[in-house]
Every structure is written in structure tokens, then in C-alpha cells.
Amino acid sequence: MTLMLLDSASLWYRAYYGMPDTLLAPDGTPVNAIRGYLDMTARLIGMYSPNRIVACIEGDWRPSWRVDIFPEYKANRLEEDGEGEEEPDLLTPQIPILLDLLDEFGIPMVGVDDYEADDVMATFAVKEPGPTRIVTGDRDLFQLVDDKRDVKVVYLAKGLSQHDLVDKAWIARKYAIPGDRYALFAMFRGDPSDGLPGVKGIGEKGAALIANNFADVDEAQQGARDAHPSLKPALAKKIIEGADYLKIAPTLVNCARDVALPKIDISMPQKPADLSKIYEIKERYGLGASVDRLITALKW
Predict the structure, then answer these.
(1) Cα separation of 133 and 4, whole Å?
(2) First CA to last CA across the chain, in angstroms?
(3) CA–CA separation, 96 and 140 (whole Å)
């Protein structure tokens, strides 16, 4: 009864950079991200045999409620005009084609206005019964790991063939912290990819020490004020001086888990009576075996 949540932007970026950019449609449109996404989805379905699936997409990659409290949030990814997210020119035209194809396959797609895909995945992970497998190359989602509810992250940093299946023990081994405190660790350490500085002067080692000794930000700040024996004076001073950032860090780092999700059927798509539209897109864009692999994985 596994639910598979696809971090779609993470997958199509990985596909774009992992597949040759010489893969072109007959009309010259690049299709490497489309083919890579379809191939990965087919392989993931084969590996994990989900009975529910959602392709999660960004309703807003910089939600206003995060930017309002921290204007630098993901500002490092903005285009020069300060509007949209900077992305490779050859990727941009592929995304609408891919979304159209997923729609034709009947794979549920969910994005919610003013929320990131991470927030959508987090809400599905807490509201839907497990087992749940969250497919991403983004370590932010380690905060969603829940051994009791069998929520794990299929982590693609090393590629699909060598991916890690992240549970609390994996987090503990990787970062030397309690497996359920990844978000706290990230608040202090920061995340340059999201433009989050963390607490000034505190790196991975300091953040790990804090996560090992305190359950949340308030406890850590109280420990710093009380000269807790685990904290050297210099580290305690940095925690105290980081008070302004630490007020907003939980909102920035923690995924929202209460997104109003649409009421849709998220079961695996059934074979439609007519596959002609899928085959039409396949031929038009020269998607070849990538479409066939997904059809096979869906057991159509």
C-alpha cells in the first residue's frame, strides 16, 4: 500500500543534467529532461511497487509567507530581473510538455498556491497512511522521515542506481545527530542552496552538537543562557547572538504540514481506453522507449 511522492522539480533537474542534451525531438525541441523523468519514474515504480502516486509540483517556489519574514529566501536563484527562478534555457520548454504527458498518463499532479512542493509532500506524508516513499535529491525532506509511520526518503544525490533509502538510522549515521532532529540541525547550520545562512559562525559540527543536546530552538537558546555544560562559551555566545534569525528559522526550514490539498484520486492510474494521445506525443517529440518503459511499469 505504498504512497510514492515525486519531488518533480528535483527529478526533472536531475534528468536534465544527467541525460545528454543532444536528445532532441524531430523539430529540434530538447527532450532530455522529459525522457530522463519518464525513465526514472518507470524505474521507481518497478522498484517500490506503489499503489498510490503523486507528482508534486511548486505552487510557488518562493512562498510569500517565507519571503515576507526573510527576503533573502532563495534570492540566490532569482533571474536577473528578480522575477522567476533561474533555470537552464533548454529545460524551460520541456516542462509544459512533460506535464501534459503526465496528465495524459493520469498520474496525479498536485501544486498548491503559495506553497512549495516540499510543503505538499509533507502534508501528504502526515495525512496519508504509510508506507510513504518521498523521491527527491533534496536533503531538506529528511525532516519528514518517520520510522513509526514508515515514511522514508528515496534520496537521489548519488543517482537512482545508487540511491539511499533514508530512515532515522541513516540520518544518525550521516550527521551524527538523533534521526528526528534533522530540521533543528539545518536551522543552525543553514542551507546555501536556499539562501539560508544559518546562525553566524555555526557550521555542521556546532549544529550537530546542538542537535545532540537540545530538542528544539527554545531549549538550545535556554541552554546558551544557562551556560549548559555541553556548550562552550563561544558557541553559547553565537546562539545568543543569533536570536533574531532563530525566531524565523523554524518557519523557513520546517515544511508546512497543513496545506489544503485537493480532494483527488491518488491511486495508480488505470489504463485508458485510448492511448492514441500518449502515442501522438511520443512520436511528435521522439520520446521512444521512455514512454514505452512507463507504460510497461504501469502494467498497461
Answers:
(1) 5
(2) 19
(3) 26
0.90 exceeded by pTM: yes
Whether the Cβ atoms of residue 27 and residue 241 lie closer than 8 Å to each other: no
Interatomic CA distance for residues 290 and 125, integer angstroms: 29
List the grid coordinates of 76.
Answer: 540566490
Q: Give the three cell numbers for residue 65.
A: 509567507
- All three cell numbers of 68, joined, read 515576507
- Comparing CA positions, the residue from 137, 128, 124, 134 lying closest to residue 259 is 124
The DSSP code for 269 is P
Beta bridge partners of 164: 155
DSSP annotation string for 169-202: HHHHHHHSS-TT-HHHHHHHH-BGGGTB--STT-
Residue 86 amino acid letter: E
Query: Using CA atoms, how far apart are residues 98 and 24, in angstroms rounded to an integer?
Result: 14
pLDDT tens string, the chain, 300 residues long: the values are 899 999 999 999 999 999 998 999 999 999 999 999 999 999 999 999 999 999 999 999 999 999 999 999 999 888 776 667 878 889 999 999 999 999 999 999 999 999 999 999 999 999 999 899 999 999 999 999 999 999 999 999 999 999 999 999 999 999 999 999 999 999 999 998 899 999 999 999 999 999 999 999 999 999 999 999 999 999 999 999 999 999 999 999 999 999 999 999 999 999 999 999 999 999 999 999 999 999 999 999
* Euclidean distance between CA atoms 174 and 22, whole angstroms: 37
CA dist list (Å): 22 to 19, 32, 158, 268, 292: 9, 8, 23, 32, 20
Contact status, residue 199 vs residue 242, Cβ threshold 8 Å: yes
